[in-house]
UniProtKB/TrEMBL annotation:
It holds the Pfam family MazG. It comes from the Bacteria. It is an enzyme of class 3 (hydrolase). It comes from Limimaricola litoreus. The keyword Hydrolase applies. GO terms for molecular function: ATP diphosphatase activity. Belongs to the nucleoside triphosphate pyrophosphohydrolase family. This is Nucleoside triphosphate pyrophosphohydrolase. It catalyses: ATP + H2O = AMP + diphosphate + H(+). Keywords: Hydrolase. GO terms for biological process: dATP catabolic process; dGTP catabolic process; dTTP catabolic process; dUTP catabolic process; response to stress; TTP catabolic process; UTP catabolic process. The lineage of its organism: Bacteria, Pseudomonadati, Pseudomonadota, Alphaproteobacteria, Rhodobacterales. The keyword Plastid does not apply.
């Protein structure tokens, strides 16, 4: 039998008490007479960068599979929601209860196969299409009639590029084959070289942006999350460069006292070791 509301358990009541306690703490911190001067001075714009940073720290803890650390990072991220809700309460916009109610209502509305009469007998692809149809209806209800409406401006640029292209692809604005994206990639690379050789910095930046945008599209065609892929490459670069520093230290050197040939040889050394599945100690 479908359920219209999920069962609330004792652990949920415990969570609600702790969230209420956190909300009370934030209210005290923002109290204009007795609160913390720093917290009182903050506004939505000044706190937003911390919110983004905390989300990335959650992702970092997950990537490292550091579960005790994840607990703390999730708490830091929860604090951000409570912080924004408290400022919204003070401004008369909404309160924390409204935030929780809105997301609860949204989750129930977006899962009619769990909380309604629709069948759960769907493939994963069919469920994704149903989810997107519900989201499209929600956007229409908010007068977001454009295909690209609602893709947040504050997203990291690479992530936003992927989302924009995914939206456009849904209405057929997309290359049907990956080979065509690769051809476009070559074209954009040539235009970047031309801009470097003949144009100014503004044009170079524009062409660099076009090249990155096509790279995000290529990632989508290859079913790769470009943010995840780039994060992996960042981690790989950090790991390999740390090896270079460690090996140079054994030789009594710092990177600034080395040269490209020596550092490149060390880079190739750890690269080869990693390809062979060897563990290289720093």
């Amino acid at each position: 039998m479908p359920q219209t509301e999920p069962e609330i358990r004792d652990t949920d009541h415990a969570a609600a008490r702790e969230i209420a306690r956190l909300s009370a703490i934030m209210r005290a911190l923002r109290n204009p007479d007795h609160g913390c001067p720093w917290d009182i001075e903050q506004d939505f714009a000044s706190i937003a960068p911390y919110t983004i940073e905390e989300a990335y720290e959650v992702a970092d803890a997950i990537a490292r599979e550091d579960w005790p650390e994840l607990r703390g990072e999730l708490g830091d991220l929860l604090l951000q929601s409570v912080y924004h809700a408290q400022m919204a309460t003070e401004a008369g916009h909404f309160d924390l209860a409204a935030v929780a109610r809105a997301i609860s209502d949204k989750m129930i509305a977006r899962h009619p196969h769990v909380f309604g009469e629709e069948s759960r007998d769907r493939t994963a692809d069919e469920q994704i299409r149903a989810w997107e149809a519900i989201k499209a209806a929600e956007r229409a209800g908010k007068s977001e009639t454009g295909v690209l409406d609602g893709v947040a401006l504050g997203l990291p640029a690479l992530m936003r590029a992927a989302k924009l292209q995914k939206r456009a692809a849904r209405v057929g604005f997309d290359w049907p084959q990956t080979a065509q994206v690769l051809d476009k990639l070559v074209e954009e690379a040539r235009e970047l070289v031309e801009a470097r050789d003949t144009l100014g910095q503004d044009e170079i930046e524009a062409e660099m942006g076009d090249l990155l945008f096509v790279m995000a599209n290529l990632a989508r065609h290859l079913d790769v999350d470009p943010e995840v892929a780039l994060r992996r490459s960042n981690d790989k670069f950090t790991r390999r460069f740390s090896y270079i520093e460690s090996e140079l230290q054994k030789r009594g050197k710092r990177p600034v006292e080395s040269d490209l040939d020596e550092m490149d040889a060390l880079w190739n050394e750890i690269r080869q070791a990693e390809k062979q599945g060897q563990k290289v100690s720093k």
